[in-house]
């Protein structure tokens, strides 16, 4: 589970991470990772949010997919630079992928997005 200070909650925060002028995006068939850094968030802990639409499946499938992505991101929080907001969007195929495949895809996409932002991935 993600600690409370590391969760994106407000729709305006999601919108800023998804559509921010200094943001970056990388995607695959499983997931799309959006990230943004702003001067206003400098020094604050990184925050993560998830978007799992009805196209992924029923409520049970969506919640399971979101739990798996949340657990994967919780293990990677220390790799995110301070002040970064990350949104992970699940594509419909993510529901059938196992956690090791999702984790490998997440690592690859996070590395790409953080590189575009200028952040250093540890």
Question: How does this structure look, described?
Answer:
The chain has 122 residues and is an alpha+beta fold. It has helices at 11-19, 59-74, 99-117, and strands spanning 24-27, 31-37, 47-52, 84-90. Strands 1-2-4-3 form a four-stranded mixed beta sheet, sandwiched between helices. The longest helix is centred in the C-terminal third of the chain and has 19 residues, at 99-117. The two termini are 21 Å apart. The model has no long low-confidence stretch (mean pLDDT 92).
Question: Tags for this entry?
Answer:
globular, 122 residues, 3 helices
Quick synopsis:
Helices cover 36% and strands 20% of the residues.
Whole-Å distance between the termini?
21 Å
What topology, given as strand order, has the largest sheet? 1-2-4-3
As residue ranges, the low-confidence spans are none
Q: Structural class given helices, strands, pairing?
A: alpha+beta
Q: Bin the strand percentage.
A: 15-25%
Shape: globular
How helical, in percent, are the residues? 25-40%
């Amino acid at each position: 589970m993600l600690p409370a200070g590391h969760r994106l909650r407000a729709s305006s925060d999601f919108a800023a991470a998804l559509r921010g002028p200094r943001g970056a995006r990388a995607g695959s068939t499983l997931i799309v990772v959006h990230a943004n850094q702003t001067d206003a968030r400098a020094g604050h802990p990184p925050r993560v949010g998830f978007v799992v639409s009805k196209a992924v499946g029923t409520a049970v499938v969506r919640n399971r997919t979101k739990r798996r992505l949340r657990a994967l991101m919780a293990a990677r929080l220390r790799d995110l630079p301070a002040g970064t907001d990350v949104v992970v969007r699940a594509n419909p195929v993510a529901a059938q992928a196992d956690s090791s495949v999702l984790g490998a895809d997440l690592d690859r996409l996070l590395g790409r997005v953080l590189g575009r932002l200028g952040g250093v991935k540890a």
